[in-house]
Write the structure tokens for this entry.
Amino acid sequence: MIARIRLLVISRAMSTSTRSSTCPLSQFSACEISDALIKLGSPNGGHIPDVHMLSPISQVKICAPAYTVQMVLASDKSAPKLSSHFVDTATPGSVIVIDTPPQAKNAVWGGLMTAGAQARGAVGVIISGRCRDLAEHRAADFPVFARGHSTVGQSPFVRPSGVNVTLSIRPQDAGDGPDAFAPVTVTAGDWIVADEDGVVCVPVGMVDKVVDLAKKGQEIDAKCMADIKAGKGVQASFKEHRGK
């Protein structure tokens, strides 16, 4: 019953955004969307690596447009400074996407920010970095996806420098060279789909093509699943329905 209540609370939170509830991407998993993006030539399938769901403890899915936040090291005096707290200017119905310097070990999101985000109608936060106050996020049933968590807060380590800017999120320890996993570009308004498998960014101009391919992929996988359960074998099922 507790898990069910949590899911209902999340559903109500997401319904504050008519865009997230009506977007056709919401009918697909993050994996299905990544598969479609790969077929469309994306080098990374839109996948933001190493970011996992830390709150709530029940299953949740986000499908909402991105409100982006760029963090910089506090020692960077040349980067712009914000006149308002970035949570206070979050767009209702959006998911907040934060990119932090890879060397930062501090949190950039805490319980007070979750309270502020919920008050403004944001549906969740995706952090290429760390959060803290896990118990508070979970008690609030607020979706938090992050690379990890920390006990120390934002100051004096990093600070926000821009909102609704284009982010280039690089995988941790990806290395360089032709085989390195490509960075993911997130532009304000791009669609973010996040679930227990991970986080995917869909450029707003590709939504229709992604939906078409994801539908086809979903239908093909359903046929493969039926055949495999019937004992046909993985290879034979793939060859018949996927053509390989």
Observations:
- Confidence is low (pLDDT under 50) at residues 1-19.
